[in-house]
Design brief:
By secondary structure, the protein is mainly β. Helices cover 0% and strands 50% of the residues. It is built from no helices and eleven strands. The protein is globular and about 40 Å long.
């Protein structure tokens, strides 16, 4: 079974930066995209960003485009989400996930999920 573990969340002031990590382990999995989603209190889980297993393509939600960057370190089996110019509306629990399909912004298409890491942006 594939296991995904997020880390790097915390409390940051508006305008600051955080880097989230998602370490993958377990049995091999034919992954198309590694995705990032977030869920704010009282809101539905929403797509943030995704990157192909090879790292050749990235996809971003309009709300984070130009501020967030997803990348991979294949040697460490780790995906990163660099978050710059953070806003209070970025606050939420951030999850990484893996999907076999080519619809990276659809949460229902993801097969494996991490436990989440809290990101809080103060104003």
């Amino acid at each position: 079974q594939v296991q995904l573990v997020e880390s790097g969340g915390g409390l940051v002031q508006a305008g600051g930066s955080l880097r989230l990590s998602c370490a993958a382990s377990g049995r091999p999995f034919s992954t198309s995209y590694m995705g990032w989603f977030r869920q704010a209190p009282g809101k539905e889980r929403e797509f943030v960003a995704a990157i192909t297993w090879s790292g050749a393509r990235t996809v971003y939600a309009d709300s984070v485009k130009g501020r967030f960057t997803s990348s991979r370190d294949n040697a460490k089996n780790t995906v990163y989400l660099q978050m710059n110019s953070l806003k209070p509306e970025d606050t939420g629990v951030y999850y990484c996930a893996a999907t076999r399909y080519s619809a990276p912004n659809s949460a229902s298409m993801y097969d494996y999920w991490g436990q989440g890491t809290q990101v809080t942006v103060s104003s």
